Backbone:
């Protein structure tokens, strides 16, 4: 039986996307899946679907503060959040970061996973900016990219090819039915199955016939 293709559409502005990203990265070594990371632009999805940031509803914002802290502990992902972070998020555009990640995916896909992780780490764990070129440079350096390669990728951000790829990926997520992130699409039995949120991965496993072992599964030892 072939591997089930599982696509993760994400934007580093989304803390729940980080949770889903880390869990799926763990399960790609356990489940019979072909995990494909699909950097997209959450702002474009929100605008196209008429969705609003959940924290704009005060009571939901209060809940999110508690929920993300609980989820971070349960998922063992170092997300840090405080009440002031909502203003910081609303004032930060990740378009440049997501274009940089997209350029990396197009030319150096081997760096896609560690680079995406470092963007989340800087924004959601260290609570530092990721919108300015100097900060993107710092993230790339932390992910192991050379200065020369990083400079080339920065130059690609404004290219039509990168802009179009990010737009096309975002539109693809919308066609699957995405209205927020993370959006996980499993291609199983000849059709796509959309799952929204980092708390639907147990259900994903059930649909594709894989066993859920919790958010931090043990990697089985190779058989002798």
Residues:
């Amino acid at each position: 039986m072939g591997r089930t293709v599982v696509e993760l559409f994400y934007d580093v502005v989304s803390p729940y996307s980080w949770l889903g990203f880390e869990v799926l990265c763990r399960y790609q070594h356990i489940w019979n899946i072909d995990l494909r990371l699909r950097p997209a632009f959450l702002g474009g999805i929100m605008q196209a679907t008429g969705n609003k940031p959940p924290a704009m509803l005060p009571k939901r914002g209060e809940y999110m503060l508690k929920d993300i802290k609980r989820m971070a502990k349960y998922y063992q992902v170092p997300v840090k959040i405080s009440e002031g972070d909502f203003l910081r998020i609303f004032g930060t555009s990740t378009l440049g970061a997501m274009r940089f990640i997209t350029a990396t995916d197009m030319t150096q896909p081997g760096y896609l996973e560690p680079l995406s992780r470092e963007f989340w780490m800087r924004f959601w764990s260290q609570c530092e900016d990721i919108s300015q070129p100097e900060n993107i440079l710092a993230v790339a350096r932390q992910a192991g990219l050379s200065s020369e390669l990083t400079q080339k990728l920065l130059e690609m951000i404004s290219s039509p090819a990168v802009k179009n790829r990010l737009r096309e990926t975002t539109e693809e997520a919308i066609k699957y039915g995405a209205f927020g992130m993370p959006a996980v699409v499993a291609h199983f039995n000849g059709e796509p199955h959309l799952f929204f949120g980092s708390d639907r991965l147990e259900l994903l496993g059930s649909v594709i016939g894989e066993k859920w072992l919790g958010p931090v599964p043990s990697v089985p030892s190779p058989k002798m």
User: Anything to note?
Assistant: Residues 123 and 129 are 6 Å apart (CA to CA). The beta strands are 4-10, 33-39, 183-188, 191-196. Residues 58-75 form the longest helix (18 residues).
